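Practice problem. Given the sequence and the SMILES for magnesium ion, write out the predicted structure.
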Amino acid sequence: MKIRSVQCRMLAGTLSKPIQFGIGAFPTFSATLVYVATDDGITGVGECIVRKAPQVTKTVVEQLLSPVLVGRDPHDVEGLWDEMFQQLRGWGHYRGFVFEAISGIDTALWDILGKAAGQPVSKMLGGAGRPRVPCYSSSVYFDEIPKMVAEAQQQIALGHTAIKVKIGRARALGGRRTDVASVKAIREAVGPGVDIMLDVNSAYDAATAIKVCRQLEDDDITWIEEPVPPDDLDGYQRVREGQGIPVAAGESEFGVFGFRELIRRRAIDIVQPDVARVGGFSGARRVGALVHAFNLRYAPHTGFSAGIAHLASLHVAASVPNLMTYEYFFAPNPLRDLFTEPFPAPVEGFIDVPHRPGLGLELDERIVRKFEVT
Ligand SMILES: [Mg+2]
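Answer key:
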């Protein structure tokens, strides 16, 4: 089997009301889909995480990385990953857009391997015997506190057993005091039996994060996510050492090299790679070995990515060691449901992993065209 072509399509979908959280207001979801076609008629699909300008990853995939791939056997997927990376790391591209481009390609290659073998990707990755995985409901965004409480209660009424809440308000939105009040109100409303995760989206400094965490230490918080910006490794260490809530991070990190530093410093407890940024399935699996070696917990990130990344993350969750929980995104996301059938729905805290070959769901061409930009 040989790779015949590598091509991208760009998607964008805008919400009628932007979502508000630690990085500000977010109106438009975007994605770059990567289609890798083989000479025996199999096409694999992957996704590169995009927050703005999908043209960038499209150019990297088609102009810089495609020449490494065309004519090669997709079964050499890990070696192709190393060759793509080797082409570019000398230019300083060991983070950022290039890594996101490699991620989309690698995901498509594993989709091909699964389709060729008649197996779901989770089993091609080694399998862990998990036909379904634990999940949490993501996320309650900034609003007036009674509305946030009502949203959390609604998710629990739907059968969820764990919920993520956004904190990290700017001063104009009430700052850290409103953050603390919102979490305490939600804990009071949902009772002691529900897991509550907090996500700062890097909006605090270490001192603020420590202060807020100490005020919430008696509220049985499962983790505090991205308390400080991803480049503030000293800040991560201070937060981890300065209070009692487990620290989570990883959606802004690239590849095993980025996670190596966070983990070596004992800066995090829960590791949250995004398959569409960490280097695809190969990257996610290599980080999984680190998680295993250091006895940490793995919680794949999904969030604002499109449906292929959400689906791929399910296969990551089904196959990595030390899985903690999968991020099931209930907040509005116009690009999540791109398939000919509904995305799996959680039941009482668990979500089914598609078992058909490859990623296991087919893109609905009519839906993809609706969001396609050129
Ligand atoms: Mg997050």
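Check your answer against the key. Residues 270 and 295 are 10 Å apart (CA to CA).
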